[in-house]
Specification:
By secondary structure, this protein is of the alpha/beta class. It has a single domain (about 5-95, about 130-240), classed as 4-Layer Sandwich (Metallo-beta-lactamase, Chain A). About 30% of the residues lie in helices and about 25% in strands. It contains 9 helices and 15 strands. It has a 6-stranded mixed sheet. A hairpin with a 3-residue loop joins strand 1 (about 5-10) and strand 2. It starts with a strand and ends in a 7-residue tail after the last helix.
Length: about 240
């Protein structure tokens, strides 16, 4: 299922963390911005899952809107196991500096004064995501037991270590930022925010060509293949525009 988290950020917005539930586990996929724990607790409770029942959190990549609340979650619920790709783990636990911050510093001298002001604002937001320990790293092709078998899929591009999840029994893909729903249609996430635009497009194509009926996108919510059409048509639509970062 997808949890809908509404918030104000330059206007009314929503994110859609996914929640996988079976008889053994409650797995949350991505966990919002810093300070979002109360919103997550409320949304999970409304979905019939007390937050204390969650056993694990998968972070699809180390952008601050996807792991920003992780540290506060683990401090309050220390039994929860945090997971990410092996590439992203050192960025989330603070061993390495965020790639977004590194890119800002690399081009700092070439920025105009106004661009530097914008970069400072972005860096401040990125720095607000506090480091949090990762207890299990995931790799492409790993199959977790959740919901009868959930495959980890490497979907680099938006970020090099980005992962998505394929819940086989439900024929559902949890896309992270590899795909978004914009104007009711599946799209490649905003290429301007991709570290590697070509890889981002290739990853989006890979997901769209999978044997999936439903796509849960962190930005935009849920899209059904029956509503959208064939994978080829989906791909043509996805390249005509882009959605959120």
């Amino acid at each position: 299922m997808a949890l809908k988290i509404d918030f104000s950020y330059g206007g009314r917005r929503s994110i859609y963390p996914a929640l996988l539930c079976d008889e053994h586990d409650r797995i949350l996929v991505d966990c919002g911005y810093p300070g979002f724990l109360p919103k997550l607790e409320r949304s999970a409770a409304e979905a019939g899952v007390p937050f204390g029942e969650i056993t694990g959190i998968v972070v699809t990549h180390h952008d601050y809107d996807h792991y920003g609340a992780l540290r506060e979650i683990l401090e309050k619920y220390p039994h929860i196991r945090a997971m990410s790709s092996d590439f992203d783990a050192p960025f989330i636990d603070g061993t390495k500096q965020s790639l977004r911050v590194s890119r800002i510093m690399e081009i700092w001298e070439s920025l105009s004064d106004s661009a530097r002001d914008a970069a400072k604002t972005l860096k401040k937001k990125l720095d607000a995501a506090k480091p949090a320990p990762i207890s299990l790293t995931l790799r492409n092709g790993d199959v977790m037991s959740w919901c009868g078998g959930t495959e980890i899929i490497a979907t680099p591009g938006h970020m090099p270590g980005h992962i998505s999840l394929y819940v086989r029994a439900l024929k559902t893909v949890i896309t992270g930022d590899a795909l978004v729903v914009a104007h009711g249609k599946l799209r490649v996430s905003d290429i301007h925010h991709a570290v590697d635009p070509k890889a981002a497009r290739d990853s989006a194509r890979k997901l769209l060509e999978m044997d999936a009926e439903k796509f849960i996108c962190y930005h935009g919510g849920v899209a059904s293949r029956h509503e959208e059409g064939t994978a080829a048509r989906l791909w043509r639509k996805s390249t005509q525009g882009s959605g959120h970062s």
